[in-house]
Amino acid sequence: MTDFLLLAFVFLVAGVVAVPIASRLGLGSVLGYLIAGIVISPLLATLGVDVISIQHFAEFGVVMMLFLVGLELEPRMLWNMRAKLLGLGGLQVGGTTVLVMGVAMMLGQPWTISLAIGLVLALSSTAIVLQTLNEKGLMRSNGGQSSFSVLLFQDIAVIPMLAFIPLLAMPELMDLATDAGHGTSVHGADAHGGSHASDHGTGDHGASLSLVDGLPGWQAALITIGAIGAVILGGVYLTRPLFRFIAMAGLRELFVAAALMFVIGIALLMTLVGLSPALGTFLAGVVLANSEYRHELESDIDPFRGLLLGLFFITVGAAIDFELLLGNLASILCMTFGLIALKSLVLLALAWVFQLQGADKWLFGLGLAQAGEFGFVLLSFTVANDVIPQNLADQLLLIVALSMLLTPGLFILYEKVIAPRFVKTQERDADEIDEVGEVIIAGHGRFGGIVNRMLRATGYATTVVDYNASHLDMLRSFGFKVFFGDATRPDLIHAAGIEKAKLLIVAIDGKEQINALVHYVRENYPHVPVIARAVDRQHVYDLFAMGCVEIIRETFDSSVRTGRSALERLGMHPFDAELAARKFAEDDRHILKEMALVHDPKIPISQNTAYIEKSKTLMKEREEQIFGKRDVFDLSTDRGWHPPSEEDLDAILADHEAKAP
Amino acid sequence: MAKLIVYYAHPGQTFSRANRAMARRASDIEGITFVDLYAEYPRHDIDVHKEQARLLEHDVIVFQFPLYWYSTPSLLKEWQDLVLQHGFAYGHSGDKLAGKALLLAITAGGSDEAYTQDGYQQHTMRTFLTPLEQTAGLCQMRFPPPYVLFGALKADEATELAHHIDGYVELLTRIRDGKFELKDATADQLTSASDILSLSKD
């Protein structure tokens, strides 16, 4: 227990200290985590921590990230990307593999090992690239989309690679392997490859649990297809009733649990049939991209993804074997830079073929130039299958890790040096892909529902967030597009796109919830105007102090209309009643505004002398004008329809008669 | 028998002596349609289709209103703007009102002497009513002499006002019964209570 707490504490401290500093310096969170890992690596070595096994655990962050990426991608969008996916991805993996293989053979490696190295190094880091693209808001640019296509293809390509690599096994290595045994020591240079291999052998591809091992090919294929079908059908037909069922409990944490269950279950199923778990959850994400639970799932999974990926990057940093690195510094650095240069060349050539323009070309070319975390997986797999000898794998591991470590630097190069040169094209691109002006409506009940209908009827795109499952069912049956979730949660309102929203309308129930949401949004997104529903006068003052642009008392207008109807029923002429209602409403709003200016949320009203004084003056004014008098036209401002007085009339006539010839 | 509809427009009825009393009496007459525009559309949201349908059902359209700045109260102007559409009241195939009559029942604050070229209004009442007269003309409607009460603000309740209101009721009743010839007004022609009441003695 103490060990675990100590370890968790060390990792968390490293992340919490390093990432804000890195962000402040403009290096991005990934580099922050990597540096944190490097810094704590001596400590971890002293503690005898198996960094690689933690890394395997943390790789689940990639699985979650692909789920989130899938959520952002509607099936139609994915279909539209198919040319890029196959063309760009296929050529990148193929081209890089062949070139790396050639270089390795020139350096004197046998072709089997060279091919394996080519395959390992062809892959790029999904974790770093997607995280960075998301962080910098480049995901939707042309370059970002192309990068994503290639990464997705690579994730798919890992599967046939895993099937193919054992065929390259070298008999000499097999003998060696039986002599050396696997990862018995827990630290030092040997431990990395060794424990990595054994860990991998039992974890990702072992025989411990599998549905397809030992089955004839066609049965395995059938089961695999069945599993994919189960994910798709489950996503389409089961999630809705499942989430509705969970909603009945009314517990927020249950949604988090359900979302995790969902992702872990799919990952498990995919592992059992020998597919990439990341790919499986990505597929599930795509299936759910159109679901109204999308935002809720997103905000539930996102924190886990972030933490796990952070942990993963730390382990990458911590796994760098400095002894080995310093021992072969020149050659390893050369090979690392060589690899980056070579991959960049392939990517830039592809960018040219696929007509990526300007900054996008460079984003694509530099962004994917590193080797990736799947490289770790494949390396340990190759060692376990006696394809690559251990000492070579250790060096390759360093190259992979170093290239990942250098990636944030490449992004900085792109951002600071290359992108500014193409500012114009970038801006034009941004215009095209920008989403249309969005109004977020938090709460779709008696109040928000009407607002939503009105805005939609007038042609505005709205994002509705509501936390009432049965209510949502009803709305869905009327064809409304609404999302399930608790709007007071910062992560959900973030997922709903508050950053880009043109307006937030707060129509949820309960003073506290309204205050929490308004407070959060005003603090963090001061550029988004907020129209909020207020429960009563006191609440108006609070919201005013928070900086709401418009505050609507939820029952005020209906009350005024009720008053107007009452006046009509009492026999007042309808137009007079209308004037009285207008007059009253205007006057009341005026009073409210003046009172809000002197109100101080920190001082109770009974002690706020300025407030009490103002209130007395205003009350006196009103008493002189309106209260107790049925004749609204007595208001000085409403003399419009008054006939002139007898005296006035006489004066006018006299004046005119005097002027008459 | 002619079908009558009276559109009564007065935004400040609380202060009205003449018009309110005229409206009350007119609305009691059987067989004519009486519309208090400000009561029906207190928020100025005129139902155009409903109004056009009503117009089609009637032969004589009466506007009853106090003269405000030499024109109708704003709601009645709004009514004209919206209801007298192209294609309905005028223009190509806009002949739905052809042959009907537009009768004005107006009260004015100034005296009849004021509404002369020598008076302080410097123009006759009919000059001020030209827009309405021309509206009727464009709609191919007849424009009988307007029924006018001058000096409405100072009129004596028991004599002048009562006289005018009786004349109004008599006028509407006669039109309803087809006992009043709706001739097109000429020159500066207006109708007063005395004209109507003298007719009724026949």
In short:
Chain A has 661 residues and is mostly helical. Chain A has 30 helices and 6 strands. Chain B is globular.
Could you characterize the architecture of this molecule?
The complex is a heterodimer of chains A (661) and B (202). With 661 residues, chain A is mainly alpha-helical. Chain A has helices spanning 2-24, 28-47, 51-58, 60-72, 75-80, 82-106, 111-122, 126-135, 142-164, 171-180, 189-203, 217-249, 252-272, 277-288, 294-318, 322-327, 329-353, 358-367, 373-384, 390-418, 423-433, 448-457, 469-477, 490-495, 511-524, 537-546, 556-569, 574-598, 609-625, 646-659, and strands at 438-442, 461-466, 482-484, 501-506, 530-534, 550-553. Chain A has a six-stranded parallel sheet with strand order 3-2-1-4-5-6, with helices on both faces. In chain A, helix 4 runs antiparallel to helix 15. Chain A is elongated. Mean pLDDT of chain A is 80; it is low at 181-207 and 425-436. Chain B has helices spanning 18-28, 37-40, 48-57, 74-83, 125-128, 130-138, 157-177, 193-200, and strands spanning 4-8, 32-36, 60-66, 101-107, 147-149. A five-stranded parallel sheet of chain B has the order 2-1-3-4-5. In chain B, helix 4 links the parallel strand 3 (60-66) and strand 4. Chain A binds chain B through residues 573-578, 631, 633, 640-644, 646, 649, 653, 656-657, 659-661, and chain B through 11-15, 38-40, 42-43, 109, 111, 114, 118-120, 153-154.
Main sheet attributes: strand count, strand direction, barrel closure of chain A? 6 strands, parallel
The secondary-structure class of chain B comes to: alpha/beta
Largest sheet of chain B: 5 strands, parallel
Biggest interchain interface, per-side counts: A-B, 21 and 18 residues
- Number of extended strands of chain A: 6
Low-confidence stretches of chain B: none
